[in-house]
Amino acid sequence: MWRVPTKVIAVANQKGGVGKTTTAVNLAACVAALGRRVLLFDLDPQANATSGVGLEKVEGASAYHALLGQEELAKKIQNTAFERLEVIPSEVDLCGADIELARSEGHLQRVARALRPILDQQRFDVVFVDCPPSLGILTLNAFAAADGVLVPLQCEYYALEGISMINRILSQLHDTGVNPKLELLGVVMTMFDGRTKLSQQVVSEVREHFGERVFETMIPRSTRLAEAPSFGKPIIYYDKFSTGSAAYELLAQELLDRLDSKPAPAPASAGQPESGVIV
Ligand SMILES: Nc1ncnc2c1ncn2[C@@H]1O[C@H](COP(=O)(O)OP(=O)(O)OP(=O)(O)O)[C@@H](O)[C@H]1O
Ligand SMILES: [Mg+2]
Description:
The chain has eleven helices and seven strands. The protein is an alpha/beta fold. A seven-stranded mixed sheet has the order 3-4-2-5-1-6-7, sandwiched between helices. It starts with 6 loop residues before the first strand and ends in a 19-residue tail after the last helix. Bound molecules: adenosine-5'-triphosphate and magnesium ion (MG).
């Protein structure tokens, strides 16, 4: 069967609560439902993605030892109840990885190194890495291992603040050679409320800055999306006919179209946005 190399996507924004985990979990499930083999890699010690796909937080189940080179990462992969969706869970011990890794050699390449054998086996089509809300060592490791970064931006006034920092980091990773292939795969607007002027203003401002890199599909604010994690189910399995489910299904299709058709709209190191406005 025809196989393309696994795509590794870091879902990141150093701002907390913007919809990273909701996006990682639901995109992973929707992309799997579209027939791709998906690995959801929970790299956040909060372990919200882990519980979001119905797994308990279990001591010793996270990538921690694998990142320190003491174990194979493949041994940490677990099945979920959902077809074609597997997960590397997290738990609170990953907090320690930040500190341990900072002291170790090649500390930014630990995730890339640990993932390598899994990617070489072509066991998955897409890996989604759910990052913690910081640009600390775990997130930088995800960036170093990724082909692309997907940034969820909440439709609120301060949305743009986070992305300027991420842009800077992306160009640094390029310039230092840590990950020259890394690109800003896309920006997804989350918690959109079409009834408010603010949501619409934020979206048009973000589109002005990031043009085609902003996904057309926007994720609406929806209580069903917020409820689903407490049932350990992605939205397509919790409430398939909700607006949130429809949105993530469309986003998954848009993402796959983007992944399947290279190159991306614009390189992450493109510098200042075309509008000339400094973000
Ligand atoms: N589209 C949405 N509509 C309504 N609630 C949402 C939506 N997306 C996310 N939420 C809720 O907002 C909160 C934050 O979302 P989420 O956990 O996905 O953000 P995060 O960026 O991963 O947070 P953290 O930075 O803490 O990891 C959660 O309670 C989640 O259920
Ligand atoms: Mg999260």
